[in-house]
Design goal:
- This protein is α+β, with helices and mostly antiparallel strands.
- The strands form two sheets. A ten-stranded mixed sheet has the order 1-2-3-6-7-8-9-10-11-12, covered by helices on one side. It has a six-stranded antiparallel sheet with strand order 13-4-5-14-15-16, with no helix packed on it.
- Strand 8 and strand 9 form a beta hairpin.
- The longest helix has 27 residues.
Length: about 475
């Protein structure tokens, strides 16, 4: 690990020096010069192009603009400026009723939902599988196998949702209509097609003003060719007695991307590489729905993480899950069965005391980081050959290692301190961030910065959505 990182740094220095030599030779040459036409100054990237903002500890609130509800009131949707707030009442109806109610209320709130979501789904399909020329037989088999792996209660919910929203349309056809199959696959993107880059950071003790845990999470996702997904941010309250939780998601989706249950257990998914392991779906499970089940059943981050590690051999993709509660911060490094059998990776519940890869330096005390690689000693290494992971690790170290007793305002300022538009420079606060979530375990407050259709702002607004 250490040797690989050293070699990569040497290569970067060589490339920089070569670039300087080329420039100097060109400037000092006495040969006849070609006519050069200036196109103006071009922006270049910088690791250290930072900025400060004027945040406070408190998030802003947004007023309700419109309200919608299914006839049976099992689903209520309130439209706010930046997001939709959804209530699903499992205390008054069964899962099939809830799925149908959600679809009905959603179509009231967003009548052209399918015209946006169906093209977006195909962008994901084409990115993951390439052009199919209309042959989606393999994709259909994949979707059917993963759907059948879901617990019965989730199958009923998704089935009724898909039937209602598809209005009888069937098959994979790019026609700006959501078919039954497309509506099901939409729920399974992280398990069937895969996600993108993300990051998470927990701070506590000497690093926070209260000494209590503060967990921060960036979800980086395919925003869509026209950033169309940014119109469908959702905060969804699944109300079901002691199984209740809140999901920060995409309107209409029921698996877990980022969520926190009513006991304060926070969970967020992050993709990692699988070292070229063949994708398998027969006999596998959807980790986004297994995580939902864990949040419904468990009241601590440790229990939730242990459950996910125990189930990891049955998942389709290796991944990290950032976890936290009022007492601890953890990362479930979940390796799929083929990776475990290859001897290149294993599943483990990592905490701040877990030994890391040789040469991987984490200099921030009272904290835990999670990026798009495992980090536990002798686990699969997706750091050495991954510029994004290395640069973001360096930036987290640089931003937080010398800071003490940070307020929420200061944490927000540090997380958004990079200028977003820096061409190809790797950022923590990047142009692909879909949402940034901060949970303060001192107050229980949950704040979110949602990316809108104009793209990621350098200094976004953090909206308070309430308490867990």
């Amino acid at each position: 690990m250490k040797g690989k990182i050293f070699c990569k740094n040497v290569l970067l220095l060589v490339l920089i020096c070569c670039g300087l030599c080329v420039c100097l030779c060109a400037c000092g040459s006495e040969q006849k010069q070609s006519l050069v036409i200036s196109e103006g100054m071009k922006q270049t990237g910088s690791l250290n192009l930072l900025q400060t903002g004027t945040y406070t500890d408190r998030g802003i609130t947004q007023e309700v603009e419109q309200s919608f509800a299914s006839e049976d009131k099992l689903c209520v949707i309130q439209k706010r400026k930046s997001y939709y707030e959804v209530w699903l009442d499992y205390q008054s109806g069964g899962t099939s009723q809830i799925g149908k109610a959600y679809a009905k209320a959603l179509l009231q709130a967003v009548p052209d939902y399918e015209k946006v979501l169906e093209p977006y789904l195909f962008e994901n399909i084409n990115l993951a599988l390439g052009k199919s020329n209309g042959n989606y037989e393999g994709l259909t088999e994949r979707m059917q196998a993963l759907f059948a792996s879901l617990p019965e209660k989730y199958q009923q919910e998704l089935d009724s949702f898909a039937k209602e929203i598809s209005k009888g349309s069937e098959g994979f056809v790019q026609d700006e209509k959501l078919s039954y199959e497309e509506a099901i696959l939409m729920q399974l993107v992280p398990d069937a097609l895969r996600g993108t880059a993300c990051s998470a950071l927990s701070l506590w003790g000497s690093k926070t003003a209260s000494g209590k845990n503060v967990i921060c999470r960036n979800l980086e996702w395919l925003l869509g060719s026209e950033k169309q997904l940014c119109s469908y941010h959702a905060v969804v309250h699944f109300k079901n007695h002691d199984k209740s939780f809140t999901s920060i998601n995409i309107l209409g989706l029921s698996g877990i991307l980022t969520a926190i249950n009513d006991d304060g257990v926070f969970a967020a998914i992050l993709d990692v590489g699988s070292d070229g392991q063949k994708f398998e779906y027969e006999g596998k499970k959807c980790y986004t729905f297994e995580l939902r089940q864990a949040l419904e059943e468990f009241s601590s981050a440790k229990e939730t993480g242990q459950y996910m590690v125990e189930q990891s051999a049955y998942f389709t993709y290796s991944h990290n899950i950032a976890l936290a509660d009022n007492e601890v911060s953890l990362c479930a490094e979940d390796a799929v069965l083929s990776l475990q059998e290859s001897g290149k990776g294993y599943s483990v519940l990592r905490d701040e005391k877990t030994p890391l890869f040789e040469g991987l330096e984490w200099k921030v005390q009272d904290s835990l980081f999670v990026l798009n690689s495992f980090a536990a000693q002798n686990n699969l290494d997706n750091f050495s050959d991954n510029e994004s992971n290395l640069v973001r690790l360096y930036k987290f170290n640089n931003l937080f290692k010398d800071k003490q007793q940070l307020t929420l305002a200061q944490i927000k300022d540090l997380l958004t301190s990079e200028v977003v538009d820096q061409n190809n420079v790797c950022n923590i606060h990047s142009k692909n961030v879909f949402h940034t979530v901060i949970v303060d375990y001192e107050s229980g407050d949950i704040q979110i910065a949602f990316t809108d259709n104009n793209g990621v702002r350098d200094k976004p607004e953090f909206i308070s959505i309430g308490h867990y």
